[in-house]
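Incident log, structure service

09:12 report received: a user says their structure output differs between two submissions of the same chain.
09:20 pulled the input from the user's history:
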Amino acid sequence: MVKKAFITGIAGQDGSYLSELLLEKGYQVFGLVYPESSENDSRDLWRIQHLLDKIEIFSGSILDGANILKIIHTIKPDECYHLAAKSFVSYSFDDAFSLTTTNINGTLNVLSAIKDVTPECRFYFAGSSEMFGLADSSPQHEETKFNPRSLYGISKVSGFYLTKNYRNFYGMFACNGILYNHESPRREEIFVTRKITKAVAEIKKGIRQELRLGNLDAMRDWGYAKDYVYAIWLMLQQNKADDYVVATGQLHSVRDFVKIAFDYVGLDWKKYVIIDDKFFRPGEKVELCGNAEKARNVLGWNPTKTLEEIIKMMVDADLESYG
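09:34 re-ran on a clean worker, output below:
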């Protein structure tokens, strides 16, 4: 029997790669997009444009509980991957109501609908390393204490515990993935990694002359998005629902990222990068670096690409976009 998968946030980076993976494995794939996305698919659905004849799209907000219930009732999915969220990390309290409402209430709506309609459906919640925030130790693992310092991190902690409670109280197969930064050519331009590779391409093409960045010494655990969606699929194939950290366990600085990207196109980054105080974020107590030993041992998962390979892939894609 063909498995059916429902993906919220299907038009995002992870949703698009996950859709490709599931289609390759013979799933019937359904996805949720916001109404404005379905009306402007050339801009908002560009990551899944090549899949639109192979998947079925529903339009609506995850805040519309009645609509979510109707969609779940229509599909009756075997697996649900809840990826939709307001995902940009802000250290201010701007747009606080919208972010927390979307990320917390939206998760509750999806979990509630699955419990009421098809409780045997396996559920995945997309957590984040930002849940650890001002972590007490590094690297972080599944038992590390959460200490979020942004509304985004707080909302993800709430979603994590909602998922865990539905697992414990209702016996649902519900998993949390605590994913560290993962990149690809499909990354949104608001993130520093894509900001860098896009700027490198534009500088190489003579379109711009500089790149403004904040703290070049900030460290991150960067992986490849396609590897990470494979990990989340593996979580829902296990005999027991559980929570997993997904990370490379390797730290690199923004400076490392910049140097690799500029070196790849034969440019000296120091001639083009300008340090701008407005892009600085508060420093970490300890670095956010993940220990994915549990994912390796239980899921048999390992990252396949180095940061250098990921950066080159991203630069190539941005160069190609300019012809």
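09:41 both user submissions now match this output. Likely a transient worker issue. Closing.
09:42 reviewer note: The mean pLDDT is 94. The two ends are 44 Å apart (CA to CA).
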